[in-house]
Amino acid sequence: MKRLNPHISIDCVLFGFDFENLHVLLIDRGRYDSDFKNEIVQYALPGDLIYMDEQLDEGAQRVLKDLTGLQNIFMEQFGAFGDPGRLSSESDQRWLKSIRSEPEERVVTIGYYSLVKMHDYIPVASSFARSAVWVPVNEVAELAFDHNILLDKALSALRQTLQTRPIGFNLLPPKFTLSQLQRLYEAIHNRDIDKRNFRRKIIKLGIVTELAEKQEGVAHKPARFFSFDKDRYEELLQEGFENFKL
Amino acid sequence: MKRLNPHISIDCVLFGFDFENLHVLLIDRGRYDSDFKNEIVQYALPGDLIYMDEQLDEGAQRVLKDLTGLQNIFMEQFGAFGDPGRLSSESDQRWLKSIRSEPEERVVTIGYYSLVKMHDYIPVASSFARSAVWVPVNEVAELAFDHNILLDKALSALRQTLQTRPIGFNLLPPKFTLSQLQRLYEAIHNRDIDKRNFRRKIIKLGIVTELAEKQEGVAHKPARFFSFDKDRYEELLQEGFENFKL
DNA sequence: CCAAAAGTGTTGAAGTTACACCCATGC
DNA sequence: GCATGGGTGTAACTTCAACACTTTTGG
To answer: Is residue A8 scored above 90 in pLDDT?
Structure first.
C-alpha cells in the first residue's frame, strides 16, 4: 500500500496536435452548483498528489495514466507552483474535501508538459476524472485552481523548447508533407509563417529527407512526402540548435 | 510557532560578482569524519524546509536570510528536484539526522537563483550554517546532496536569462566602464568576448548612457564611464529582448 | 620610454524578411 | 476550366565574426 505525499502534487499539461490545431488534455473533475443543485462541468489539468517514494518524472507519468489512461509519455518539467492561496477558492475547496484525506494541507505542485499526436492517444477517464477530453488551446475557458496559469507557463515552455530542440518532429506520420510540419509550428506559435522561408530553414537543418513518393487523390498538386533523418534528429536532440526562429 | 513542511525545501543558488569572477554562496554545514574523529568542512547550497503557510518565493528569501543573513534578494525559480535518492548518501543522512525532526522523509526541493554584487552582501552564517562563504564557481568541489547538479542547472538558467533580459546590469556601480560590464558577461559565460563586438552590441541595445567623466589615477588610458538608462532598462526588463548573444 | 588597458572600423559571410507566380490534380 | 494547395527565387537588409593598430595615462 503506497502512501500519498500530502504536500506535493503533479499537474500534467499534455498538448496534442491533430494536423489542424493545438489542443490540451483536460479532465472534468465535476463541480457542485448550489444554485441549481446539480453537478456542472469544471475542467482541470490532470493532476494529483504523488506517492512518497516516487521520482517526480515517474510521478508525472503515473498521474497522467491514472487519470486518462495514457502511458509512456515523456514529459518535461516546467516549474513548481506553490502559492498557498491557489487552492482556496470555494469550489476548489469543496472539491478537495470530497476526494482528499487531508484537504486543508497546503500543496505545492510541479508542472509537467508534453506534446503528442492527438489521435494516437484517446484518453479514457478514470479515478476521479469524470471525463478526459482534448480541448483546443484557444478555446480553454476558466479552469480549476491556478490551472490557467500553469497552462500559460507550459505553453511558453513548449515554445521555448521548440526553439532549441527538434521536439514535435515525432508528431507526424513517418511520411509527411512540409505543409503539415509547417501547420504544426503555426499551431504552436499561433501565427502564420511564410511558406518559402519555412521550407528553406527546415531543409537547411538537414532533419528531413525528401522521398520519391507523393500524395495521391488530393484535388490539387500533390505534395511531396518527407521523412525524418533519424541520425540527424538524434544529433540535434543532443546538441540542440541555437535559436531556431520562424 | 510556525510549522515546517517536512516534504518541501528550497535551495538557493546565489551568484556573486566581484568585478573579476563569478562566485557562488555556499555554507559549511559540517560533516563528521569517522576516521579522524572530527568535523571536516562539507559545503552545501543554503537551503532548508519551508514553512507550511509560506509562498515559495517568500520561502526562498527567508531561507537565505536565516542561513546567511542576506536580505531582500529577488530570486528566480529554476526547477524542482525530487529524486528520492538524492538525500541518501551516508554522510547526508547522518547530517540530516542531526538537525531534522523527520530525517527520513522524502523531500522535494525547489531551486532558486539570483545574481548580486558580491561586495554588497557579506554573508554571516547562522542557524545550522557554520560559515557562509563566496566560492569561485570554477573552484566548487563536491557539494552535499545533489547540490552540484542544482548549481549546474542554476548556471544554465542564469545564462539563458541573460540572453533574454538585462539581468546583471544592476551588479555594477552607478558609473562603470564597458570593460567592467564585459568582464561580467565573460565571467558568467566563462569565455572571452571580442571587445569591439561587445561594445557595439551593448550600445545598440540603448541601455547605457555615455558620461563625460573618466577614470582617474589608472596607469593606462582612462576609460570612459557609463551609466544605465533606467527607462530603457525597465522597458527591456518588461519586453525582454530576443536572443542577445555574445 | 615602457607597460597597460582603452578605444575604434571594415569586410565578407550568413542569415532574415518580404514578396508573386506557375503547377498539378480532382471535380 | 476552375478551385485548391504545392512549389519555387531573388533582392534588400541586417547581423555576425574576425581581425590590428593608435591613444592616453602612470610610473
So the answer is: yes
Residue B32: which H helix or E strand, with range? strand B31-33
Identify the pLDDT of residue B203.
93
Examine the fold and report which residue of B163, B192, B222 is the final residue of a domain before the chain moves on.
Answer: B163
Report the CATH number that the domain containing residue A189 is assigned in CATH.
1.10.10.10
Residue range A95-125, pLDDT digits in tens: 888 888 887 778 999 999 999 999 888 888 7
Cα–Cα distance measured from residue A210 to residue B218, given in angstroms and rounded to the nearest whole number: 63
Does residue A110 sit at the B interface (CB-CB below 8 Å)? yes
Residues of chain B contacting residue A58, judged by C-beta atoms under 8 Å apart: none
Task: Tell me if B245 is assigned to some domain.
Answer: no
In whole angstroms, what is the distance from residue B167 CA to residue A125 CA?
45
In terms of residues, how long is chain B? 246
For residue B41, what is its C-alpha cell?
A: 568542512
pTM above 0.70, yes or no: yes
Q: E-assigned strands of B34-171?
A: 38-40, 43-44, 47-51, 76-81, 108-117, 131-136
pLDDT of residue B180: 95
Q: Distance (Å) from CA A20 to C1' D15? A: 34
Query: How buried is A232 (Cβ within 10 angstroms: 0-12 exposed, 13-18 middle, 19+ buried)?
Result: middle
Task: Indicate the residue type of A241.
Answer: F
* Domain's final residue, options A147, A163, A179: A163
Inter-residue contact A97 to A103 (CB < 8 Å): yes
Number of A–B residue contacts, CB under 8 Å: 61
Separation between Cα atoms, residue B32 and residue A242, nearest integer Å: 45
